[in-house]
């Protein structure tokens, strides 16, 4: 008997479906066994009304050794598995939500703690490090913080922590007293065998739900306040750093202003000395002018006019000397060319 490719694929698919059904059945039986061991017998799967006859041949009896689930049983087991998976998913989701809430609370607490550490570091820097260092003979590498400032800082911190511990102890005592009071009321209530009616239970459930909603709202508000407080602390730290920078800049500006004022004073003194020197020179010039007017020397205007006339006369002398030189040159040329008679004519023409 030959098996075709389609038959082989169908056999593989049927085998895979049987494996899946077997896995689902094993999970169902294991879960039912665990539940029955913990809570007692549960609802059995529906029985089928189909009755199989006793197989006649040996091959039929061998095939009858394997049990096949009916459709009703398969549907019943599938519904049970779906319900179990839904319950498991709900548990996982609830666990995830609780873990998420815990992580959010831890994150908020960590942020608050980081802010507190930054604030303490800033306070330590302001209270201890800003007061200076003790410089030893070794140089800057061996500088030390004053021990008195550190001891004083940590003593104040320890005192504040002690006060906080005392306050928390008092609060703990108050809460313990309240708990004892509530326990005594509960014991009295149990002893008096008071019973609550369904209406009272319903009222308490409503109040509990309203209180839970109020608590959730308050927790959200508290978380927002913590976040805003953290942001404000960070902003305050930034502003303090900016203030320190501005103070340093103000100190440098004061130094520059003092330097400029000293320089201005020096320049004013120099200007005053220069004015005095100029006034002395003016007085000296006035004296010289007065002495010049008293003496027999010519005035400046006459001297300038005489100098101008002298310059004009020298200029004319140079012009006449040039003309004489030109005439002599022409005369020599004429003598060489024409002789003595023509030379006389040239002299007359030149004159």
Automatic annotation (TrEMBL):
It is found in: Cell projection, Cilium. Residues 35-67 are annotated as: Disordered. Residues 159-331 form the CCDC113/CCDC96 coiled-coil domain. Keywords: Cell projection, Cilium biogenesis/degradation, Coiled coil. The lineage of its organism: Eukaryota, Sar, Rhizaria, Cercozoa, Chlorarachniophyceae. One of its GO terms (cellular component) is ciliary basal body. Residues 50-64 have a biased composition (Basic residues). It comes from the Eukaryota. One of its GO terms (biological process) is cilium assembly. Belongs to the CFAP263 family. Its main location: other. The keyword Coiled coil applies. It comes from Lotharella globosa. Residues 310-337 form a coiled coil. This is Cilia- and flagella-associated protein 263.
